[in-house]
Amino acid sequence: MKKKFKTIGLYSNSSNKKVLSIGQQVEEVLLSKGCKLLSNESFNNIYKSKQIKTSSSNYLASKADLIIAIGGDGTMLSCSREFGSKNVPILGINLGRLGFLTDIAPDELTTKLSEVVTGRFDADERFFLTTKIKGRRSRFTALNEVVIHSGAIAQLIEYDLYIDNIFVYRQKADGLIINSPTGSTAYSLSGGGPIIHPDVKAITLLPMFPHSLSSSPLLINDKSKIEILVVNKNKATISLDSHNSLPLNKGEVVTIEKSKSILSLIHPRDHNFYSAFSNF
């Protein structure tokens, strides 16, 4: 038996009306198990209860044993960046459509949630990607992917790719997707990239519509350092989890590596990674 969760944070940024009914059900289950409930402002704006203490995100991250994200995989992404990167375990409850990150369905919520909070669960670890642009102070974190692209339709960019300080190739393409195994079921999947099981410690590099006879994706060790030099005169754009977007100029170097932060995803005991495939 694993540890029981006593202080639980609730999170959602979804506008779906189902969040209200699911939030009420979650509250009832957790209170019946003697849990203390917290939330931040984003959840309080959707679901209000006198039994749930609203607090700052920093307080929530420091006090919660577990964060429950209610919504789709997009909700899980934002929750993971905000709380999972601070080593708080995350559990996802979907709104009726099974995702690769949110695996408790509303019709089995009471049973599965009761099992999880009393210590009957599985956990798997996912890594983030950290990104640094040479000459800029900020570092950026992504769970799924980092995308470097032209920012325009049918416009190529040119870049040099280095892995562990070794030149790999110069390429013209609409862009390049660099994703973790978690991100292999997101944007990379739409681009024809391979699905990578979470236990595989790899990073995928997938060119987007390359002007080349060879466009195979490249899988590398997750300990590798990736550097991309922007060669083209036109400006490029970098996007992280489709959340942060920043312009890139000619000559700028983007460095992408596995982050030291690890996301702990909590699942019911019968969780199966492949069960979400039926939705595609």
Based on the model shown, name its key terms.
280 residues; alpha/beta; eleven-stranded mixed β-sheet; six-stranded antiparallel β-sheet; 38% strand
Topology:
Blueprint: E1 7-11, H1 18-32, E2 36-39, H2 41-44, E3 52-54, H3 57-63, E4 66-70, H4 73-82, E5 90-93, H5 109-117, E6 121-133, E7 139-142, E8 145-149, E9 157-163, E10 166-173, E11 175-179, H6 187-190, E12 202-208, E13 218-221, E14 226-230, E15 236-240, E16 244-248, E17 253-268
Parallel strand pairs: 1-2, 1-4, 2-3, 4-5, 5-17
Antiparallel strand pairs: 6-7, 6-17, 8-11, 8-15, 9-10, 9-14, 11-12, 12-13, 14-17, 15-16
Category from helices, strands and their pairing: alpha/beta
Binned, the helix content reads: 10-25%
Number of helices: 6
Q: Shape from CA axes?
A: elongated
Q: How large is the radius of gyration?
A: 20 Å
How many β-strand runs?
Answer: 17
Estimate the mean pLDDT confidence. 92
Strand content: 35-45%
Which blocks of ≥5 consecutive residues have pLDDT under 50? none
Largest sheet, strands/sense/barrel: 11 strands, mixed
Structure commentary:
- With 280 residues, this protein is an alpha/beta fold.
- 18% of the residues lie in helices and 38% in strands.
- The protein is built from six helices and 17 strands.
- The protein has helices spanning 18-32, 41-44, 57-63, 73-82, 109-117, 187-190, and strands at 7-11, 36-39, 52-54, 66-70, 90-93, 121-133, 139-142, 145-149, 157-163, 166-173, 175-179, 202-208, 218-221, 226-230, 236-240, 244-248, 253-268.
- The strands form two sheets. Strands 1, 2, 3, 4, 5, 6, 7, 9, 10, 14 and 17 form an eleven-stranded mixed β-sheet that branches.
- Strand 9 (157-163) and strand 10 form a beta hairpin.
- Helix 1 crosses helix 5.
- The longest helix has 15 residues, at 18-32.
- It starts with 6 loop residues before the first strand and ends in a 12-residue tail after the last strand.
- The model has no long low-confidence stretch (mean pLDDT 92).
